[in-house]
From TrEMBL:
Species of provenance: Streptomyces flavotricini
Matching InterPro entries: N1-like, Ribonuclease/ribotoxin
Protein name (Swiss-Prot/TrEMBL): Guanine-specific ribonuclease N1 and T1
PROSITE patterns linked: PROKAR_LIPOPROTEIN
Keywords: Hydrolase, Nuclease, Signal
Organismal lineage: Bacteria, Bacillati, Actinomycetota, Actinomycetes, Kitasatosporales
Amino acid sequence: MIFRDVPRSLLRCVVGALFLCAALAGVAGCGGQSDAPPSASAAASGAPSAAASVPGPGSSASPPGWAKGIATVRVDALPAQARDVLVLIDKGGPYAYRQDGTVFGNFEKVLPKQKRGYYHEYTVKTPGERDRGARRIVTGEGGEFYYTDDHYETFKAVLR
């Protein structure tokens, strides 16, 4: 792999910058309608946190296209540890476990099929567990965020 000697943190920054540029192009109307979550433009503009952009109870806002057909969960309904991990993902780390940020293979085929490397996983600490536990956040290159509390058996799309 040509990126073998490049620090992982630098690669994450470059990939994050590319996603931010793509999200901003979508917001500006340069690329048609964007499926990027609203938090991408909020983060770029210094607007309030991602949780603030989630539709409130009783809202008729529909989920983004990537979340259609899958159960959803609002950021404020996630466990506190999962919300903490979302903040770390937005900041680019540091993460508690060396496996965090690594490629999620989607071997269970629960998430939409994508090329290898599209998804990355992050550990959500489970109080009382001595190991990594079963809870994870999985991100997609298109701005998707998924949460599982049963070690990849089921996922919920995280509405940010």
